[in-house]
TrEMBL record:
GO cellular component terms attached to this protein's record: cytosol
Database matches in InterPro entries: Epimerase_deHydtase (IPR001509), NAD(P)-bd_dom_sf (IPR036291), UDP_G4E (IPR005886)
Protein known as: UDP-glucose 4-epimerase
Keyword Isomerase: yes
Purpose of the protein: Mutarotase converts alpha-aldose to the beta-anomer. It is active on D-glucose, L-arabinose, D-xylose, D-galactose, maltose and lactose.
Catalytic activity as recorded in UniProt: UDP-alpha-D-glucose = UDP-alpha-D-galactose
EC number(s) per entry: 5.1.3.2
Organism from which the protein derives: Trichoderma gamsii
Biological process (GO), any one: galactose metabolic process
Subunit structure, as described in the record: Homodimer.
Keyword NAD set for record: yes
Amino acid sequence: MPVGTVLVTGGTGYIGSFTTLALLDAGYDVVIVDSLYNSSKVALDRIELLAGRRPDFYQIDITDEKALDEVFAKHPAIDSVIHFAALKASFAPHSFSAVGESSVIPLEYYRVNVGGSIALLQSMSRNNVTNIVFSSSATVYGDATRFPNMIPIPEHCPIGPTNTYGRTKSMIEDVISDYINAQRNNLEKEGKPFQQWNGALLRYFNPCGAHPSGIMGEDPQGIPFNLLPLLGQVATGQREKLLVYGEDYPSRDGTAIRDYIHVVDLARGHLVALNYLRANQPGVKAWNLGSGRGSTVFEIIKAFSAVVGRDLKYEVVARRAGDVLDLTANPTLANTELNWKTELTMEKACEDLWRWVSNNPQGYRQEPPAELLAAVKKA
C-alpha cells in the first residue's frame, strides 16, 4: 500500500520532477498536472527510469478548475497537494537572464500564479483535499538588508518583495494562509474536526545541480533563469559569455550573494514538509529551505569553472533595478522542526550540473549517453 497519494502541480518542471522522484522513492503514489509551458514530458520517462514507477500525468492548465476537478474525481485517494505550477520570473532577484519577463507581462503572472492558486484551492475544497505544500520563494523577503540583523534571513523577517514575481509568491502565501485558517476556524465553530486542514509555505533559495546519474536535470525552454544553468550554456558553447549584473555591491568581491541549494536536498525538503503536515497538523507554517551559506557570483563562476576545467567567459554590466545584495537563508527552523538540512554542497551541485549539461547539451531533446543509461539500469 502506498503511504498516500499526492497531486504535484508543475511536476514535470525542474524542482517538481525531483520532488516527484523523492515522493515515489518514499512510497507515495503521485499524480502530476502540468501545462508543459516550460517543461518536457520526457521528464516522466527519466523519473520512471530512476524510481521504477511512473507517475500519472495530465496535461492541463492550473487555472482550469473543471479539469482539476476531473483529476481529483479520477484519483479520490489524493489527500495532499504540492504546488509548483507557476510562471517563473527571469527577473527574480536571484536570476541572471537578460529579460525581466515578470515586469514586462505582470498581468499574466498574476493570472497564472495567483489565479491558478485560487483555482487549485477552490478545487481542493470541493474535493476535500486538505493539505497543501506551496513552493514559495526567498524573493518574498525582498531586500532583507533594509532591517538590522536579518542576514541570514529568518522566517520572521518582514515580507517585502521587490518585483512582480516575488509579489505573486507573497500574495499566494497570504491566500493559502487565509484559506487554511478560515477552513479550520469555520469547522471548529461548527464543532467538527478541523485539524486536517494544513499548509506549508516553503521559502527556498537558489536551486541548482542535477541528478548524480546525469540523466535528469534542469531543461529550461529558451533563456535560462538562473546563474548556474547560464554558466552551463557558456561551458557547452551554447552561450558566448555570462552577464554579471553589478560588481559594486558591498560584498567581499563586489557581486551579489545568494544561497545555493542542491535540487536533491530541496526535493527532500518538500517531502519532509509534507510528512510534517500529515503527522503534526500544525495549521499554516513557513519554513526557509536553504544551506545558510552565501556565495557570491564570482565564487560560483570560479567553482563551476574548476569543475569544467577552464575559465568561463563573463562580462560585468550594470546592476538591475530590483536586485538585492544578499539572499542567504537562516534554515534553523527547518533544521529543528523538520529535521531537515542540506547534505549536498554547492560544489557538489556544480559537479552534478556539469555531468548533466556536458552529457545532455540539448537537455530532454536528446537521448542521454548509453553508458549513463546502462549505469542507471544496472543500479
